[in-house]
Automatic annotation (TrEMBL):
<dbReference type="InterPro" id="IPR006083">
    <property type="entry name" value="PRK/URK"/>
</dbReference>
<keyword id="KW-0808">Transferase</keyword>
<dbReference type="InterPro" id="IPR004566">
    <property type="entry name" value="PanK"/>
</dbReference>
<feature type="binding site">
    <location>
        <begin position="97"/>
        <end position="104"/>
    </location>
    <ligand>
        <name>ATP</name>
    </ligand>
</feature>
<dbReference type="GO" id="GO:0005524">
    <property type="term" value="F:ATP binding"/>
</dbReference>
<keyword id="KW-0067">ATP-binding</keyword>
<dbReference type="Pfam" id="PF00485">
    <property type="entry name" value="PRK"/>
</dbReference>
<protein>
    <recommendedName>
        <fullName>Pantothenate kinase</fullName>
        <ecNumber>2.7.1.33</ecNumber>
    </recommendedName>
</protein>
<comment type="similarity">
    <text>Belongs to the prokaryotic pantothenate kinase family.</text>
</comment>
<dbReference type="GO" id="GO:0005737">
    <property type="term" value="C:cytoplasm"/>
</dbReference>
<dbReference type="GO" id="GO:0004594">
    <property type="term" value="F:pantothenate kinase activity"/>
</dbReference>
<dbReference type="InterPro" id="IPR027417">
    <property type="entry name" value="P-loop_NTPase"/>
</dbReference>
<comment type="pathway">
    <text>Cofactor biosynthesis; coenzyme A biosynthesis; CoA from (R)-pantothenate: step 1/5.</text>
</comment>
<feature type="domain" description="Phosphoribulokinase/uridine kinase">
    <location>
        <begin position="92"/>
        <end position="229"/>
    </location>
</feature>
<keyword id="KW-0963">Cytoplasm</keyword>
<dbReference type="GO" id="GO:0015937">
    <property type="term" value="P:coenzyme A biosynthetic process"/>
</dbReference>
<keyword id="KW-0418">Kinase</keyword>
Length: 314
């Protein structure tokens, strides 16, 4: 384990842990996941390796479980001090990072792993795309080419949603986004019912508050930034686009159906163009600048393998 602050005190709030040292921190428990259970957790059928789960994500789920238990105890102690008997509040985790860096794969995996630990069996997952403004509204505001930028979300509703879950409201409802129609699904709802843990996954969840207002990141008990080199993320975006082009885009209902007949070179060029115009500027201007706000940073190599973990120590 190395400490990047050695030699330059105060330069970073993170302790840097190499993969092998992190893997040694794994508790001596059985991996609570059978290999075939991994299949459904992969983003689009890629190889989320079993050793990646046991070396990186199992220890991470244990660490988060310890934080969650600590928060439950603190909450109980505070309630006792105040002479109240208030129920525990959900522990809220944010997962941030670029489009195509692997946030949803990690969030879904953590959901399953965290639910296997005693004391946090009920884990809910919210993706912030449900809080994107509908396409009609984005068009009205001239934001159709800014999907995923902070201003393309209904941030007030997202904040209200997480506040209500954290306040212990029995049922909280969120809108639902479809990657197929590339729009909010009219009338569809995701319902969260008093989980032990809520995972909030999205590009911009670590954005700082504006002015005197609260931001959703103010409600996080733990946050993860998924990091990789920009060139690797661009390649993952292109590869995912090609897979979707051969799969989901062939559905006539798909917003991108017009791309289904492109040959490979044209499909790659289209993916590169969307990356250059929308997702790369958003990564550079809005997403990556929030990295240092995370509790923990996972740094991936070109094969999606986590090489380094940065854990906030102050
Ligand atoms: N740990 C991993 N191992 C292998 N492939 C992965 C891993 N995580 C993500 N991927 C692949 O990378 C692409 C982007 O992942 P995804 O979770 O959809 O990203 P995001 O939610 O950040 O847009 C998908 O094609 C997915 O299958
Ligand atoms: C839906 C997204 C904005 C991601 O939303 P998130 O769940 O991270 O809030 C993104 O996947 C997206 O579709 N971006 C628009 C540009 C593109 O088509 O890649």
């Amino acid at each position: 384990m190395s400490d990047p602050t050695n030699g330059s005190p105060g330069s970073t709030p993170f302790v840097e842990i190499e993969r092998a040292a992190w893997a040694d921190l794994a508790p001596a428990t059985q991996l609570p996941l059978a290999p075939d259970e991994l299949t459904g957790l992969r983003g689009l059928g890629d190889m989320l390796e079993i050793d990646e789960v046991s070396d990186v994500y199992l220890p991470l789920s244990r660490l988060i479980n310890l934080y969650a238990v600590g928060a439950q105890q603190l909450h109980a102690a505070t309630s006792a001090f105040l002479g109240e008997r208030s129920p525990t509040t959900p522990f809220v985790i944010g997962v941030a990072g670029s489009v195509a860096v692997g946030k949803s794969t990690i969030a879904r995996l953590l959901r399953v792993l965290l639910a296997r630990w005693e004391s946090t069996p009920r884990v809910a997952l919210l993706t912030t795309d449900g809080f994107l403004l509908p396409n009609a509204e984005l068009e009205r505001r001239g934001l159709m080419q800014r999907k995923g930028f902070p201003e393309s979300y209904d941030r007030r509703s997202l904040l209200r949603f997480v506040t209500q879950v954290k306040s212990g409201v029995a049922e909280v409802r969120a809108p639902v986004y479809s990657h197929l129609s590339y729009d909010i699904i009219p009338g569809a709802e995701a319902v969260v019912r008093r989980p032990d843990i809520l995972i909030v996954e999205g590009l911009n969840v670590l954005q700082p508050p504006m002015g005197n207002k609260l931001a959703v990141s103010d409600l996080f008990d733990f946050s993860i930034y998924v990091d990789a080199r920009t060139a690797d993320i661009a390649r993952w975006y292109e590869e995912r686009f090609l897979k979707l082009q051969r799969g989901a885009f062939t559905n006539p209902e798909s917003y991108f159906h017009r791309y289904a007949s492109l040959d490979e070179a044209a499909a790659r060029a289209t993916a590169a163009d969307i990356w250059q115009r929308i997702n790369l500027p958003n990564l550079t201007e809005n997403v990556r600048p929030t990295r240092s706000r995370a509790t923990l940073v996972l740094r991936k190599d070109p094969q999606h393998r986590v090489q380094k973990i940065l854990l906030r120590k102050i």
